[in-house]
Amino acid sequence: MAAVSMSEALRQMLWGKRAVAVAAISVSRVPIRLLSTSTWRLAQDQTRDTQLITVDEKLDITTLTGVPEEHIKTRKVRIFVPARNNMQSGVNNTKKWKMEFDTRERWENPLMGWASTADPLSNMILTFSTKEDAAAFAEKNGISEDVGVQAARTDVNVCDQQGASEV
């Protein structure tokens, strides 16, 4: 019983064989309740979630989305990587690809002077990890896309700027 390794005991505990695992853990002088029941359930749920169903043929889901046809057929989306904020040196929100719908008619609200629109999609920005994911989403929803290129990042050397100003 003492020959069972710690990782084997944890593996057995995760897969439901608790009696052997508890005996092995108690022999090795580790607290008996090493994993909570919520962690054990989470590990079981993750094994169920990894089973994905893939469909090889191309599917058109425009009829299932509930978006009116006039918002899909005549719309274009712009897929891009946002530029870095000039006021800050960080690169936050510049590693993901964004999808933005083109803007439709806007007007100024006479009561408050606010800009108004009847288009619910014009204010929606979607985020994707890759350009291919964004293009696949647009194609799957029947929206024509306009893909921008990712600008090459140029790091300016501080020494070069100081040397240029002295000349």
From TrEMBL:
Alphabetical list of Pfam families matching this protein: NDUS4
Signal peptide bounds: none
Keyword field: Electron transport, Membrane, Mitochondrion, Mitochondrion inner membrane, Respiratory chain, Transit peptide, Transport
Membrane topology listed for this record: Peripheral membrane protein
A GO cellular component annotation in the UniProt record: mitochondrial inner membrane
Keyword Mitochondrion: yes
Keyword Transit peptide: yes
Protein role: Accessory subunit of the mitochondrial membrane respiratory chain NADH dehydrogenase (Complex I), that is believed not to be involved in catalysis. Complex I functions in the transfer of electrons from NADH to the respiratory chain. The immediate electron acceptor for the enzyme is believed to be ubiquinone.
UniProt record similarity statement: Belongs to the complex I NDUFS4 subunit family.
Name this polypeptide is given: NADH dehydrogenase [ubiquinone] iron-sulfur protein 4, mitochondrial
Gene that this sequence comes from: NDUFS4
